[in-house]
Write a structure and sequence with these properties.
Layout (H helix, E strand, L loop, with lengths): L3 H20 L4 H9 L1 H8 L1 H12 E2 L4 E2 L7 H15 L11 H8 L3 H24 L2
Antiparallel strand pairs: 1-2
Helix pairs in contact: 1-5, 1-7, 2-7, 3-4, 3-7, 4-5, 4-6
C-alpha cells in the first residue's frame, strides 16, 4: 500500500514525463522554471485564480482551442496536471474535453472545501516542481 505522498510523487513524475515529451526535449529547463513559480501563484492568488490564469494562457483565441502541444503547452499541461490530480482524489469534477468544468466546480465550493482543494493542490505542486527539476 502506498501513502498519499507516494501517489502524488508517482502522478507528478508521470505528468512531468508526459509534458516533456509533448513540449520537446529542449524544454525541460523552461518547463521547470515555469512550474517552480506556480505554488507561489496559488499562495498569492488562490487556486481558482491560478487555474483560470493557466487556462486563459493556454487558450488560442483565434482557433478557439487550447495549446496542448509545443513549447506553449506548459500552461495547459500544468492546468491539466493539477485538475487531474484533484479529480483523482475525488476533490474536483473535471473533464479534459471541457476544462471550464473544473472552474465551474471550484466556483461552487464552500470556503472550507475550497481551502482543502487548495491545500491538496499545493502538496501536489511541490512534487510536480521537484520532478520537473529532475529532468533539467
Amino acid at each position: 500500500m502506498r501513502s498519499v505522498s507516494q501517489e502524488r510523487a508517482k502522478f507528478a513524475y508521470n505528468k512531468v514525463s508526459e509534458a516533456l515529451k509533448i513540449m520537446g526535449s529542449g524544454s525541460a529547463k523552461e518547463f521547470s522554471s515555469f512550474v517552480a513559480g506556480v505554488p507561489a501563484m496559488v499562495m498569492q492568488n488562490g487556486l481558482g485564480h491560478t487555474l483560470c490564469f493557466l487556462l486563459a494562457k493556454a487558450s488560442d483565441q483565434k482557433k478557439k482551442e487550447y495549446k496542448k502541444e509545443g513549447k506553449e503547452a506548459k500552461y495547459w499541461l500544468t492546468f491539466d496536471a493539477i485538475a487531474e490530480w484533484l479529480k483523482k482524489q475525488g476533490m474536483l469534477d473535471y473533464d479534459s474535453g471541457n476544462p471550464v468544468s473544473a472552474i465551474d466546480a471550484i466556483i461552487g465550493l464552500t470556503a472550507l472545501e475550497y481551502l482543502s482543494r487548495q491545500e491538496e493542490a499545493l502538496r501536489f505542486l511541490e512534487w510536480f516542481k521537484v520532478m520537473s527539476k529532475m529532468f533539467v
